């Protein structure tokens, strides 16, 4: 009788673990595992705006090319900022939304190169980011950002 009870207990345990295993395979990935749809350049521009202006840091690692640099026109002698430093800066702003109007336009668009002008209109100044994007084997990514600031 004890053997029969142990057999049913083991069978129940195996059934439960099997059902749990198969049920977890169909679950959606966690937010940190989401993939950025980089098949179209407009998605990358939107992700750039969301990451830099709206504090959404989900796709930052996928968004920027490994050779990414950011430069500021107001300080031409400053060394360019690389990918890891820029992402670290943006992650420090996680959840913070800038109080500004945002607009963008595509200045150049081809099969493997695009240039967008992203304008952030603040109360006292305007920041314009010229965002250079390239298409590689994994889709579009941001290669370079040049920022220009103008007082009103």
Provide keyphrases for this structure:
152 residues; alpha+beta; Nuclear Transport Factor 2, Chain: A; six-stranded mixed sheet; 4 helices; 6 strands; disordered N terminus
Query: Roughly how much helix do the residues carry, as a percent range?
Result: 25-40%
Shape assignment: globular
Structure summary, number of beta strands: 6
Q: Give start-end ranges of low-pLDDT stretches.
A: 1-33
SSE arrangement, N to C? HHHEEHEEEE
**Strand arrangement across the biggest beta sheet:** 2-1-6-5-4-3
CATH architecture field = Roll
Total separate domains: 1
Structural class: alpha+beta
Distance between the termini: 87 Å
The CATH class name reads Alpha Beta
Count of helical stretches: 4
* CATH T-level topology: Nuclear Transport Factor 2, Chain: A
Largest sheet: 6 strands, mixed
Strand content: 35-45%
Mean pLDDT across the residues is 83
* CA gyration radius, whole angstroms: 23 Å
């Amino acid at each position: 009788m004890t053997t029969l009870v142990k057999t049913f207990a083991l069978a129940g345990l195996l059934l439960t673990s099997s059902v749990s295993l198969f049920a977890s395979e169909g679950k959606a990935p966690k937010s940190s595992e989401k993939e950025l749809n980089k098949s179209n350049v407009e998605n990358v521009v939107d992700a750039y705006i969301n990451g830099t202006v709206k504090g959404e840091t989900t796709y930052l690692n996928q968004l920027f090319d490994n050779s990414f640099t950011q430069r500021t026109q107001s300080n031409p002698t400053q060394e360019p900022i690389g990918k890891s430093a820029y992402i670290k800066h943006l992650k420090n702003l996680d959840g913070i939304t800038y109080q500004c109007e945002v607009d963008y336009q595509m200045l150049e668009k081809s099969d493997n190169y695009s240039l967008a002008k992203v304008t952030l209109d603040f109360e006292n100044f305007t920041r314009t980011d010229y965002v250079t994007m390239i298409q590689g084997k994994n889709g579009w990514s941001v290669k370079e950002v040049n920022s220009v600031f103008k007082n009103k």
